[in-house]
Amino acid sequence: MKLKGKKAWITGASSGIGQATARLLASEGADLIISARREDRLQQLEQELTAKGCNVLVAPVDVSDRKGMEQVGSMIAANGGIDILINNAGTMPISPIINGRVDEWEQMIDTNIKGVLYAINAVYPGMAERKEGHIVNISSVAATLTYQSAGVYGGTKHAVRAISDTLRKEAIRYGVRVTDIQPGSVDTELPDSIAHDKIRAAVKDNMYGEDMPNLQPEDIANGIFYALSQPAYVDVSELLIRPVIQEN
Ligand code: NDP
Question: How far apart are CA 95 and CA 85, in angstroms?
Answer without folding.
Answer: 30
